[in-house]
Amino acid sequence: MSQFKMADRIAALPPYLFAEIDRVKKEVKARGVDIISLGIGDPDLPTPDFIIEALYASAKKPENHQYPDYVGLRTFRAAVADWYKGRFGVDLDPDEEVVSLIGSKEGIAHFPLAYVNPGDLVLVCTPNYPVYGIATNFAGGRVKYLPMSEDNDFLPDLDSVTDEEWEQAKMIFTNFPNNPTSACVPKSFYEKLIAKAKATNTIVVADAAYTEMYYNPANKPISVFEIPGAKDVAIEFHSLSKTYNMTGWRIGMAVGNAGLVKGLGKIKENVDSGIFQAVQEAGIAALQHGDPYAEKFRAIYKERRDILMAGLKKIGISCREPEATFYAWCKVPQGYETKAFVTKVLQETGVVVTPGNGFGMPQAGDGYFRIAMTVGKDRIEEALSRLAKM
């Protein structure tokens, strides 16, 4: 059989974050151990029934079985604009400033193709969702990571970027609330970033997929577009996945600067054919009627968070209390190397957690591991009981 060499961009990919974990997980499971997976951020709570019913009704419409519009149904884009107005007080033109996505990951992965030329510099705040750097590399760009550490409450130091680098930078990726650290961003950070981006003609790419997974209603996560002038330089990616437990539905949106939205839409015209219209109509139902359900989900995750924080403290594992997201960013106990500790936990307890050095620049996440609170409270309590016996 012929052997074909993969493209250099594939060979340059970092090791898949969960590959080694999956291998050890299979070994442990083969021993008959009950696996408790706190590794991947996939909600265990079901999609609300009213969204499923909306999909069912819409799927029966013959007109929805044809190719959809590349940028999304006008009604879906209008629902996104209405939701942004209600949630963030942000005005969006559904015709020029909103594009539908097959999940926010798809849009984020494609966006650099519209604006990054080979050799262009892209800034990525890290620890981070790995897609930012990978998408930049696929477009031929260069990545400069901006480390986020506990010393700065897991915010990047914008002043660490030289004037020359700012002038060269085509775009900067941010993600708040952050995966994996759960850190949130104050308005003062975005104000400084927007001013710097406008002065240097740098695109701000804000991943806001977790803004609805917060624990203090008096301090809700913000949109970059709450900052005056942000539309001049920014595009924001959002998703229905985490907010309404719709990860498998693959529906999201990008909003903001009309030119940036159009550029992303140009890529999408050439690589996909849009979202099944029935899914978009179900998405409209979610955006229009889903907020009470999202509030219930937040209450469930808050209960899980409180149980987890109390249990980890009792065990002696230091962990940053999440302000948002369903992730907990925990310190690896002294005397352990990150990967070795995560492997030991899996082998000895059957509990899956994620090594922090798999998120973006390895040094930024080294010494940490991430817990995803995507199992019921009884399973979290069982996981804590097993960890306590190590």
List the SSEs and their pairings.
Blueprint: H1 8-11, H2 19-30, E1 36-37, H3 49-59, H4 74-88, E2 98-101, H5 104-115, E3 121-126, H6 131-138, E4 142-147, H7 163-168, E5 169-175, H8 187-200, E6 203-207, E7 234-239, E8 252-256, H9 258-271, H10 277-289, H11 291-315, E9 319-320, E10 327-331, H12 338-349, E11 351-352, E12 354-355, H13 362-365, E13 368-372, H14 377-388
Parallel strand pairs: 1-11, 3-4, 3-5, 5-6, 6-7
Antiparallel strand pairs: 2-8, 7-8, 9-10, 10-13, 12-13
Helix pairs in contact: 2-12, 3-10, 4-10, 5-6, 5-9, 11-14
Structure, briefly:
Helix content is 42%, strand content 15%. The protein is built from 14 helices and 13 strands.
